[in-house]
Design goal:
Length: 351
């Protein structure tokens, strides 16, 4: 019997919920769906926020996970998907959310939008899933299964942050904060691919050095008291057109007041360091503060075309084997020692 990793609620006096491996029936697709046999999945910090109870509208006993690659195991009447030329046996990526088609501003109906995993949209940490046919996309042929599993959520988030929101172009100076995580590394690779001058920050000097292998021109340790001055020394005093940030922490004030050019864009896709006090200089300096997360189905397709055109390979930090290893992989992600995505192969598919 197949298995899946579900979100198990714990008593209110226990902070953490559980990621529990359970036996589940093999799902049957409806006429507008396809059955996908999962080959590999990838973790996201969202998984940790869910397990910590810090995520809205949780659906307990639902399957966890947003990122997966699989093969089409069953189609209605075994037909090809006419709009995408997909057929049984094809490798596919699964759109990591549903309910957002093409609106560049945000989901067309926010009440029907959901990110996969622990929500009204069941996740992909399973041997099998059923998915709307419109949410399946061919995997770029040059990517391995492990690389492809790392792409969907982080790759989409970075693509929208950089190009829909930040409108990054060749020759611009771009700062990516907190390098090492999945979205930040994709943002670095994407910006470098279009010819931007990319710099990074981290509290780990080794991560800054590794980032240079993926296109960073340099970086600074954000724990240094004068990190912003060190950064501008690296650029010869040139400030930044766009900052891609996931922290929203204490350093945001320095970014808005001294790192960005007049009229620059501060694009935030997370809040891992909490909130910050918004001073007055940002509007005097014409700064745009732009919130973003995830992206539409149309942007997902654009992202796949982009990574294929530029031959971008996701950075995979660590690989675990088997759905039963997901709790260990989540703890590894908590320890924040990884550089790149954490991927789990789904071995031994059970019928």
């Amino acid at each position: 019997m197949p298995s899946a990793v579900i979100l198990e609620q714990t008593p209110d006096d226990i902070k953490l919920h559980n990621a529990k491996l359970v036996k589940v029936p093999k799902p049957t697709p409806n006429p507008d769906e396809a059955l996908v046999k999962i080959k590999a999945v990838a973790l996201n910090h969202r998984d940790i926020w869910i397990l910590d109870g810090n995520y809205p509208k949780l659906v307990f006993n639902s399957v966890l996970g947003s990122d997966a690659i699989g093969t089409i195991a069953q189609l209605p009447d075994n037909h090809t998907l006419p709009s995408k030329n997909l057929k049984t046996g094809d490798r596919v990526l699964i759109m990591p959310s549903n309910g957002w088609i093409s609106n560049p501003l945000g989901p067309e109906d926010e009440t029907r939008y959901a990110i996969r995993g622990g929500s009204t949209s069941p996740g992909v940490y399973a041997h099998y899933t059923v998915n709307d046919q419109a949410d399946l996309f061919k995997v770029p042929e040059y990517l391995t299964d492990i690389e492809a599993a790392a792409l969907p959520l982080s790759g989409l988030t970075a693509f929208r942050a950089l190009f829909t929101k930040g409108q990054v172009t060749k020759g611009q100076n771009v700062l990516v904060t907190g390098i090492g995580g999945g979205v930040a590394l994709f943002a670095l690779q994407y910006a470098a691919a279009v010819g931007a001058n990319v710099y990074v920050t981290s509290s780990d000097e080794a991560k800054i050095e590794r980032a240079k292998q993926y296109g960073a021109k340099g970086g600074v340790n954000y724990r240094h008291a004068k990190w912003d001055e060190e950064l501008l020394q690296l650029t010869g005093g040139q400030k930044f057109h766009v900052v891609i940030d996931s922290a929203n922490g204490a350093n945001t004030g320095a970014i808005l007041s001294s790192v960005l050019i007049f009229g620059g864009k501060f694009v935030s896709f997370g809040q891992t360091a909490g909130s910050f006090e918004l001073g007055r200089l940002y509007f005097v300096r014409q700064i745009s503060i732009l919130g973003t997360t995830m992206g539409s189905r149309a942007e997902f397709e654009q992202m796949l075309d982009f990574v294929t055109k530029h031959n971008i390979r996701p950075v995979v930090g660590d690989v675990f084997h088997g759905l039963e290893k997901i709790p260990d992989a989540i703890q590894h992600l908590r320890d924040a020692k990884h550089f790149g995505k954490v991927v789990i192969t789904v071995d031994g598919h059970e019928e």
